[in-house]
Fold this protein.
Amino acid sequence: MSSSVIAPTAVLGAGTRHGEFCVIGENVKIGSGCVIGHHVVIHDDTTIGDNVRIDDHTVIGKNPMKAANSATTKDQQLPACQIGPDCIIGTSVVIYRGSDIARRVLIADLSTVRENVTIGRFTIVGRGVAIENFCKIGMYVKLETNVYVTAYSEIGDRVFVAPCVATSNDNFVGRTEERFKHFKGVTVKRGARLGVHATVLPGKTINEDALVAAGALVTEDVPAHKIVAGLPAKPFRDVPKEQLLENQGWKDE
Amino acid sequence: MSSSVIAPTAVLGAGTRHGEFCVIGENVKIGSGCVIGHHVVIHDDTTIGDNVRIDDHTVIGKNPMKAANSATTKDQQLPACQIGPDCIIGTSVVIYRGSDIARRVLIADLSTVRENVTIGRFTIVGRGVAIENFCKIGMYVKLETNVYVTAYSEIGDRVFVAPCVATSNDNFVGRTEERFKHFKGVTVKRGARLGVHATVLPGKTINEDALVAAGALVTEDVPAHKIVAGLPAKPFRDVPKEQLLENQGWKDE
Amino acid sequence: MSSSVIAPTAVLGAGTRHGEFCVIGENVKIGSGCVIGHHVVIHDDTTIGDNVRIDDHTVIGKNPMKAANSATTKDQQLPACQIGPDCIIGTSVVIYRGSDIARRVLIADLSTVRENVTIGRFTIVGRGVAIENFCKIGMYVKLETNVYVTAYSEIGDRVFVAPCVATSNDNFVGRTEERFKHFKGVTVKRGARLGVHATVLPGKTINEDALVAAGALVTEDVPAHKIVAGLPAKPFRDVPKEQLLENQGWKDE
């Protein structure tokens, strides 16, 4: 006997358990061995792999909201939300329809993942992180607590973003018709790292294995393998050899 | 048949739908054509206009909490929460009793709006924004993701606040009895703009159509139509003409 | 008649009320006179004192998540979550198993408190605050809105942290095996204060009754009773006498 409301067309795999007061919509497919908490909402058409953990109060497959006044959200037909096997999704997370999340990803409490987002395998999305629409997040990425990834950003494999880093995508700060042609998120190339409370301006690129120091304001592209620091950020030395990605001995699975 | 718990004195307009496990309190009035998600809680006496969308897990009309130790929250009789027509309220939003929200406002996921707050029409409150108590937010304002609006602030019409901007209201940083006389939020005048990760100190005013650059720390009032940047922020040039509010051709509805 | 699901082994004290659709687990003990909102989840073994208020959608006693890829979360046996009497817990808060919260603490909306955390009496944890695992928070502390307390931090009694302050604990920014030996949060000693949007680097100590100015980046230990400011932060004068903790006339209860 369960208090949950499960659509007749939803399919739950063998050994998958769910808590009280869940709502599981039409055509949802959930793999085997999943553990779903209380008050979880899984909207229509979502597909979830095997052995996924989803904690209380999380919402998956949400349809976007369209403000009267929005610059980036348009009405559109979105593919169903896809969550790969062995993922862990925390409490009060919101994942939109039109997102595609690979296997073994962790998405911690109170994070949001918007539509038209892909996240690669083994990536960690920390507590309170916001990934806006039209972002591509690589594999083995770490986005630490409260990181803000603006719309139209691209984050490469093995990137590390420390807590409370902010990004932006509008150099015109909400003015002129011109700006709609120039909206551009940030690009962080493979293995690059950003320190706590750093800021990256619209359209800037952090190149391979570069390091942005804590509190730095990135106003120009950052060269590969360089450390930049300050406000605005200036290069001041090379990334130490023992910290380079190629010297970690890490292998992709 | 519905799993929701709706008080006998609540009134829902024609065509208004709600999801599973909602709780709708005494004397709540909801207009027609609304779409209310799952697990939504609407506390006693709240009034909601026509065609409002409210997403899963949102709480409206919450009574304030009073810490043993709080500097700004007092026991008080609050008017009921009011939400105008055509608003969109996201997932896991918390809106307090004693707030008044005009028509066509968007309040995105995980935002909080405290008591004694007014928000003007067509304003966008981004994901994770916190608007503290005793704030007045104008119309056509954009508060982007994770913006923090401190108590006792006033944000004028057509203001644009980029993601992760922070404000404060206590120059004495929690010390002296004197400070209770000086609590003052920030004032942002019509059309002014703040860049990503900017910080505004207590009591400061950003004047009409001024622009605070990304990452700047505002320690003095900002003159109208000027751009300021740096830590602390200093004026460095005028806002380009084509970016001035008067040159956008925008009309209020 | 109640829609909530309460385990037969759970014990609720006299006069304790709860809302709709709550889930209260095995061996939970709740004192008398508590007011629990709607959709609240209290996981197994949690103990809650008398006269505690818990608002809608809050989760207490959550089991940690273990990412394939995490640097600080290990499998472990955790003691049950303990919440002292006269606490107020806001909406959509997440408190983990293995946390111990003293009496008269306020934890505001959308905050998270991880495992292996202690919080002293009369402390205020503001809206959206994240306290990571292995932190010790003193009594009469104020952590304002959106403060981020990194893992392995220690915050002394009567500390004041202004909104949007960020901290970090990994000087190697996610690289080298060496870093696991050096993980260290921040230490904030009794009565110290941090201004809005300040940043503190890994392992740094803010000494007794020091003051970090708004927006400052703390890269070295801060001496007692000194004010530091800038990026990086430099000492620039003494804390004014009338603001020193010893001159406030405050007494511990």
About this structure: The radius of gyration of chain A is 19 Å. The mean pLDDT of chain A is 94.
